[in-house]
Amino acid sequence: MSATVYQSCTLAPETPKSESGELQDMAAGLRKSPAPEEAPRLVPKELVHLKDQSGVLVTGWTRPAPEVFLVGAEWPGEPEAPDGGRPAAATAAGLVRQCGLAVSHAAFGVPLEYQSLLKNLNCTLMEPDPEPGRRGGRTPVTVELNCSQMIRRGGRVIGAEIMEFTVRHGGRVVCRADSRVQWVSPQVYRRLRGGYLTAPWGAWDVPDPVAPERVGCSSAAEVALSPAGRPDRWLLRNDPANTEMFDHPVDHVPGLALLTAAHQAARAAGGPRWSAPTAVMTSFRRYVEFDAPCLLDVRTSGSGVVEVAGSQYGQPAFRIVLTG
After folding, report:
1. pLDDT band at 136, cuts 50/70/90?
2. Residue 2: inside a domain, yes or no?
3. Containing H/E element for 215?
4. The pTM is what?
5. Which of 38, 79, 140, 260 is most solvent-facing, going by the fewest CB within 10 Å?
């Protein structure tokens, strides 16, 4: 069992690592957003820790102040599903996460081989159904990113521990979010992860899914939960074929995958009203591993709040609160 306490976003072993010169070239190409008549250019997938370029949402950025960025991005259209597809809050969480990663690497120069340890990520929608989510394709949005508690190494700023995001569409604020992260070197990460870093991908049993319609999914392949014998408890289901949760092989369950599972648990416990939560608050205490069961316990309240507590090896692992 891992003894560390945070959630990281790990590049796959086969993902190309850019040398410092290549990273500078990436940054130079992103500092100027494309002209209005030009098609948006998506940033290289390495900057947002993805293997599939089609999943990239960030198009570029400008830097009006040393710790302030205006990031161009694309809000993805919601897929078809029984209750409307992926909730907008989860979409927004994934979008701002990409913005933070891209700025950290391209603007602050955090090496691509460094690991991002996500401590928490919170997101609130200003409207229950933001305009970008109702469109079939991607919609351009602007993300104002304010950085604080700067991380310094050798007298040089290499990143920000706290990031605050304001997502705007057509001049209107549609989402606010904040995150707290820490960056660690490959050497430190190897010490943190030990043998888990080289564990074979997909070498675990995948339990049977709950009925897709119960958690708002269109197919069993999208389901992240398995029955655990109680109406308020679920077993995390890590299907390596689910590319929405796992873009590439990783050494632990990513934080955004846990958010997906938590939303499904809220949907299963509270019914269709939890198809589109308007806010999520997340905190990660330790890594969630693939080689042991992870339980999700759900507690609902009459005030429109669902709390999902994840545990593994009998120890608290994460806590996600959804508001509807």
Report:
1. low
2. no
3. none
4. 0.83
5. 38
